[in-house]
Amino acid sequence: MAVKVKNGRFLLYSFTMLLDLQTVSQTKGSTQFFIFNLFADYILPYKEGWAWTHELLYLLELLGVSDRAARTTLSRMKQQGWFETDRDGRRSRYTLTEKGRAIIAEGDKRIFETPIDNWNGEWHFVIYSLPEEKRPLRNELRKKLVWFGFGNLAPGTWVGAHNRQAEIEQIVQEMGIESNVSLFAGRRTGLMTDEQIVAKCWQLDDLESMYADFVMRWKARVEPELNLLHKLPVQQRFHLRFMLTYDFQPFPRKDPNLPTVLLPENWSGFAARRLFTAYRLKLNEGVPEFFENLSDYQVIK
User: On the chain, which terminus has fewer CB atoms closer than 10 Å, C or N?
Assistant: First the structure.
């Protein structure tokens, strides 16, 4: 496992960690997914990565999670190494471990990653040949490549527009398949165009429809009351902002974040990201103060 610290945040590129990250991001609707989002977007930035148990139960109740489901999941996540707990008298608190901070940092990196505006035309290739007895490793490698924005160009050949060399090398080393994988980078020199490569590797039409649906649904939900958001109870603004981010989070698993020059004109992904960013900012009014004074809003259980 390799951990790097950057700007006070933990960055971890680990085969087992990315397995956990994919499991969390794919289990949409699970209490664990809610808890990770809560810590990533609120507990870590506003409460330094820890919260009293009664605060977490209150926040999760605002999000529709029952007391029993919350307690059970928090206990399980502690056993899995995401949190550590300590007590102060009758009160207990949950604190993110380095492992927990690392998975949040990797998830944040993908969801908030900006598109490439000045692409140099260079593609990055991962080429592998894994025998049948290593099929489980082959399948897991494919999942990791999709997470990092690679598309399947040909059997055993994956291509992406981002330089993910450090991440891929770390994963391959931890999987013990260095002799089966090669990394290359270069420009296209002929025959297939860049646009044809994109069409072969990614289903942009499906992604376009998903982004357009996201924009339509959230405009209908927020736009009519945009000028009245400041009148909403802060708990309601928190709930809306949380669900907005929750609804946007599947996109990093499906969107390779291609350079803008390779995307269709009027790409809905741009509108979706602008809406996502703007609404998160507007809905955040009063939320930091809400988290600083949680004890004023809820009853200790």
Answer: C
> Is residue 50 in a domain?
yes
Contact 30, 63 (CB under 8 A): no
Give the containing element (helix H, strand E) for 216: helix 204-222
Q: Which two tokens stand for residue 238?
A: 């928190």
Task: Yes or no: say if 144 and 158 are a contact pair by the CB < 8 Å rule.
Answer: no
How far, in Å, CA of 83 to CA of 100, rounded?
7
Residue 140 carries which side chain, given as an amino acid letter? E
Local confidence pLDDT in tens for the 301 residues of the chain: 333 333 333 333 343 334 444 444 444 458 999 999 999 999 999 999 999 999 999 999 999 999 999 999 999 999 999 999 999 888 899 999 999 998 888 788 788 888 888 899 999 999 999 999 999 999 999 999 999 999 999 999 999 999 999 999 999 999 999 999 999 999 999 899 999 999 999 999 999 999 999 999 999 999 888 888 888 899 999 999 999 999 998 898 899 999 999 998 899 999 999 999 999 999 999 999 999 888 776 644 4
66-75: buried (b, 16+ CB within 10 Å) or exposed (e) per residue?
Answer: eeeebbebbe
Strand ranges (E), 47-197: 50-52, 83-88, 91-96, 122-128, 151-154, 157-160, 181-187
Domain end among 64, 91, 111: 111
Q: 75, 90, 111 — which closes off a domain?
A: 111
**Apex CA 99: angle with CA 103 and CA 36, to 5°?**
45
The size of the chain, in residues, is 301
